[in-house]
Amino acid sequence: MRTHYEKRATKRKLKAFQEYKLSNFAASASIVLAILFGLSGYDLFERTVSIPFLILAGIYLLFGILQLLVSAKIRSDIIQRNTIQATTRIFGFSLIIALLTGNIFVAIAALDIIKKEKSIEYMLSIYMALTNICIILISALNLFKPYVADLFLLGMGILLSVSVLHIVAMILIGLFVKNGDVSRILLPLAYLLILTAATGNVFSLLLGLMLLHKIRHGNKEVLVTWVDIVRRLFRNAMAALGLLFITILLSLSICSYFTFEYSLAVENNY
Asked: What does the pLDDT read at residue 201?
């Protein structure tokens, strides 16, 4: 029988790994959303069932269960080996597709577990790319309306181009940012990321400025208040998720000028 000391030691071990905490949260959030979608799929008064909502509930429940299994494997690795095995991290690649269903919780947990050594730049690139993809998915809902904005195709084209750039940036940062040191090769990328912040993507702006800051100072540790604040923020997964939702709302409000026709929607009660 495990002693109280052993239980506390195990708890401290698990707490030291952000991947485990984020994985548990993603699994819980997915299951809760699955329940909510399931309840929304049944009209109590009309006694009718909405098939799309039930399908969505099933998909979210599936990803929630898969994420729970990943959490169990992470827990086993930490307790037995005090590290997360490479074979466990591979599971993250299969869970990235959750983003196609709008499940950003599982997608973030998947991208977080894939890479062992995660710099602040890599984390910013994850949230930057996810923000833009979420805007595209939300904006694409306008296709189900009888009429879309005149600038809809232009807006979606810009968003898709920016998304490709952000995904490429995430890959390049994974390759050229080692032990916190940023290669000068990423200097042009830093300026491009700052430009894409015009879509309201706060993470893109922070990442571009941080890359510029490190390159200009030769990767020397220079104390800058805003950089320290960003690092502290990303130590708390819930705080980072909060900033993600705020950024999505900000970006959506800016991009809606291209993808959403407000006056027509009000007149037709869309």
From this structure: 94
